[in-house]
Amino acid sequence: MPTTNEHLKEAFSGESQANQKYRAFAKQAEKEGFTNIAKLFRTTAEAERIHAEGHLKALDMIANTADNLQAAIDGETYEFTEMYPPMLEQALSDDHKAKRMFKFAVDAEEVHAQIYSKALEAVKAGKDMDVSDFYLCPICGYIELGSAPDECPVCGAKSKVFCQIG
Amino acid sequence: MPTTNEHLKEAFSGESQANQKYRAFAKQAEKEGFTNIAKLFRTTAEAERIHAEGHLKALDMIANTADNLQAAIDGETYEFTEMYPPMLEQALSDDHKAKRMFKFAVDAEEVHAQIYSKALEAVKAGKDMDVSDFYLCPICGYIELGSAPDECPVCGAKSKVFCQIG
Ligand SMILES: [Fe+2]
Ligand SMILES: [Fe+2]
Ligand SMILES: [Fe+2]
Ligand SMILES: [Fe+2]
Ligand SMILES: [Fe+2]
Ligand SMILES: [Fe+2]
């Protein structure tokens, strides 16, 4: 019999995945011209985010920002050192289409870990980061500080596709 | 040795959860006055959403809207009939704080399934839903069509807290 903490982890995982699925389904509905159904998917995605956040709080997994950054660094490090390398290797040997995003992710996560480490240094020094512009590559998830690069070092996308998240 | 499809499911789960964590961490950073770090968390959350979407595509889990709605109905039905009831029961017997969101979720998911069923009827009749206003309760994830209720039937929140997702 699982404990309530184990239940919370399972429910958090389920709600997080439902949120992502509904956001992707909303885009598909939009493409097919179902504008209202797309809005329904986005609204329900937000409902699942509320459930996910509630479970995360009940797990006491939202700490202070220094601890949150450390948890984020640990998660990113696990992904780029342990999780993704064997996944990429196998997808390459299968020649599975998964290899593309596995490769982008393994490279992007390493950069995420580095940037979170800079953020943690700032917090340990009692201040916010001094950078306020974060440029995201919408193809691979690479992030650059300050200004967009001429070309994405992970996927090769051009400067003009980079975006900022408000 | 897991298959690439099993790897994709694991990676989709991990990315979906990272997205939710970073969004929650962003709110916490904002509360502590770390405006730039909050923006970094939101930007990285979006990077993880890109990874999650890529994995979902590689899993061929984004179908046409009729099939997506059926998958959504199946997921919601699993949650309110099988997943949440024993979780809620145990959290109640533990008197664990998880009981609050488990109760909200089990009730909200049943409503989500009903609304998705209406959407599927419309799609099967070759049209979009005729409703374009979806009111979300930001406390429990309940959704009402057309206009906000006087009081949320799931959590009791007042009409004025209901919001619409664009
Ligand atoms: Fe949910
Ligand atoms: Fe990452
Ligand atoms: Fe890129
Ligand atoms: Fe990622
Ligand atoms: Fe739901
Ligand atoms: Fe509610």
Question: Helical stretch count of chain A?
Answer: 4
CATH topology of the largest domain in chain A: Ferritin
> Separation of termini of chain A?
43 Å
The CATH class of the largest domain in chain A turns out to be Mainly Alpha
Major pleated sheet of chain A: 2 strands, antiparallel
Looking at CATH, the homologous superfamily of the largest domain in chain A is Ferritin, core subunit, four-helix bundle
Oligomer: homodimer
- Arrangement of strands in the largest sheet of chain A: 1-2
Helical proportion of chain A? 55-70%
Segments of chain A where pLDDT lies below 50 for 5+ residues? Answer: none
User: In one word, what is the shape of chain A?
Assistant: globular
- % residues in beta strands of chain A: under 5%
Which ligands, by name, code or SMILES, are bound?
Answer: fe (ii) ion
Structure description:
2 copies of one chain form a homodimer. Chain A has 166 residues and is mainly α. Chain A folds into 3 domains: 4-58, Ferritin, core subunit, four-helix bundle (Ferritin), CATH 1.20.1260; 63-128, Ferritin, core subunit, four-helix bundle (Ferritin); 131-166, Rubrerythrin, domain 2 (Single Sheet). Helices cover 66% and strands 4% of the residues of chain A. The first copy, chain A, contains 4 helices and 2 strands; from the N terminus they run H-H-H-H-E-E. A two-stranded antiparallel ribbon of chain A has the order 1-2. In chain A, a hairpin with a 6-residue loop joins strand 1 and strand 2 (143-145). In chain A, helix 1 runs antiparallel to helix 2 and helix 3 runs antiparallel to helix 4. Chain A starts with a helix and ends in a 21-residue tail after the last strand. The interface between A and B is large, with 98 and 98 residues. The structure holds fe (ii) ion (6 copies). One fe (ii) ion is lined by residues 137, 139-140, 142, 152, 154-155, 157 of chain B.
